[in-house]
Amino acid sequence: MAAPFVQGQLRNEQLSVEIGTACAHCERQLHLTVSSEMQWGVREQDAEPLVFEPEVDWAHFTKPTIIDDY
After folding, report:
1. Could you tell me which of 10, 59, 55, 61 has the C-alpha nearest to residue 36?
2. Who contacts 10 (Cβ-Cβ below 8 Å, separation ≥6)?
3. Whole-prediction pTM value?
4. Is 8 a residue whose pLDDT tops 80?
């Protein structure tokens, strides 16, 4: 989730990436799209992947990195 966001911020562009992966449980193929606005979607209509999205209050964020906030 962070890569398109960080690259979008650095380049001052709106970006999106597609991630091809598979379910660890059933090995079904998944295609996730993640944007620099931290939005995501999945191509497969009946798939419901669990995606971790950290909630960061950017207006009050003062830590050196997002990792330090968790």
Report:
1. 10
2. none
3. 0.61
4. yes
Closest to 34 measured CA to CA, from 52, 61, 11, 59: 52
In 3-state terms the chain splits into helix, strand, coil percentages (rounded to 5) of 25, 25, 55
> What's the pLDDT score for residue 59?
81
Q: Per-residue pLDDT tens for 23-61?
A: 888 899 999 998 888 888 899 988 888 777 667 777 888
CA distance readout (Å), 10 to 23, 28, 34, 41, 64: 31, 34, 16, 23, 16
Strands 40-42 and 16-22: unpaired
